[in-house]
Amino acid sequence: MHTWILDSGASFHVTPHRELFSDYTEGRHGVVHLGDNYACDIAGIDTLQLKFQHGSVFAL
C-alpha cells in the first residue's frame, strides 16, 4: 500500500510508481516548475484512479 497526500489546489500530481498507471504515455510532455523554480521534465502522462478504503474512487 502506498501513502498519498492529495492537494486539491495542485496543478500536477507526481509519483515515481509507474506500475500504478494503466495507460501510461511516455514522451516529452513539457516541464513542471517546482516551488524553488527548478524545472523538471514531464516524462509521461496518464490518469490514475485511487480507490479508498470506504469504496470511493478519485481520478488524478
UniProtKB/TrEMBL annotation:
<dbReference type="Pfam" id="PF22936">
    <property type="entry name" value="Pol_BBD"/>
</dbReference>
<dbReference type="InterPro" id="IPR054722">
    <property type="entry name" value="PolX-like_BBD"/>
</dbReference>
<protein>
    <recommendedName>
        <fullName>Retrovirus-related Pol polyprotein from transposon TNT 1-94-like beta-barrel domain-containing protein</fullName>
    </recommendedName>
</protein>
<feature type="domain" description="Retrovirus-related Pol polyprotein from transposon TNT 1-94-like beta-barrel">
    <location>
        <begin position="4"/>
        <end position="57"/>
    </location>
</feature>
